[in-house]
């Protein structure tokens, strides 16, 4: 389980647009890494739209936002185009990064259990350490809460 004060697990993942993104490449800037279950679902769309709406404020706070899900790069490209998203979306199809951050969990719906991503967010400082963690996030209003924490860091 990744906790505040620990070094953030580094990653290099394929991202929307066909390139890759590496956590270490943003140092000494701050980074928000948020994990979400699935492209183009209601809660995930709302969360991505709210992070996009605040993208200029995050940039002014010296903070980059990266959303990560198990969806493919192709899915991310469609998701970004459909909703006009302006944040980085990385693909963790093998779930290695989700496992490293402790967000790949057993979930349950309608009496069936399955493995999936628990909606979680990590604020990482300029030294690469986890500054704050939000688990079991509710999408609405979450981006503003994270922005306030990034501005205070």
From TrEMBL:
It catalyses: a hydroperoxide + [thioredoxin]-dithiol = an alcohol + [thioredoxin]-disulfide + H2O. The keyword Repressor does not apply. The active site is at 44 (cysteine sulfenic acid (-soh) intermediate). GO terms for cellular component: cytoplasm. GO terms for molecular function: thioredoxin peroxidase activity. Keywords: Antioxidant, Disulfide bond, Oxidoreductase, Peroxidase, Redox-active center. Residues 2-153 form the Thioredoxin domain. GO terms for biological process: cell redox homeostasis; cellular response to oxidative stress. SUPFAM superfamilies: Thioredoxin-like (SSF52833). It comes from the Bacteria. Its EC number is 1.11.1.24. Belongs to the peroxiredoxin family. BCP/PrxQ subfamily. Thiol-specific peroxidase that catalyzes the reduction of hydrogen peroxide and organic hydroperoxides to water and alcohols, respectively. Plays a role in cell protection against oxidative stress by detoxifying peroxides and as sensor of hydrogen peroxide-mediated signaling events. Monomer. This is thioredoxin-dependent peroxiredoxin. The lineage of its organism: Bacteria, Pseudomonadati, Pseudomonadota, Alphaproteobacteria, Rhodobacterales.
């Amino acid at each position: 389980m990744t906790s505040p004060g620990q070094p953030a697990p580094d990653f290099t993942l394929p991202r929307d647009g066909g390139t890759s993104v590496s956590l270490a490449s943003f140092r000494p800037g701050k980074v928000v890494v948020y994990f979400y279950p699935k492209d183009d679902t209601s809660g995930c769309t709302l969360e991505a739209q709210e992070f996009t709406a605040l993208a200029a404020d995050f940039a002014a706070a010296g903070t980059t936002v990266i959303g990560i899900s198990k969806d493919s790069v192709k899915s991310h490209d469609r998701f970004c185009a459909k909703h006009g998203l302006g944040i980085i979306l990385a693909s963790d199809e093998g779930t290695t990064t989700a496992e490293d951050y402790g967000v790949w969990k057993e979930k349950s719906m309608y009496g069936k259990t399955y493995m999936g991503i628990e909606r979680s967010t990590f604020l990482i400082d300029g030294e690469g350490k986890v500054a704050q963690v939000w688990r079991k996030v509710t999408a609405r209003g979450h981006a503003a809460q994270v922005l306030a924490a990034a501005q205070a860091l």
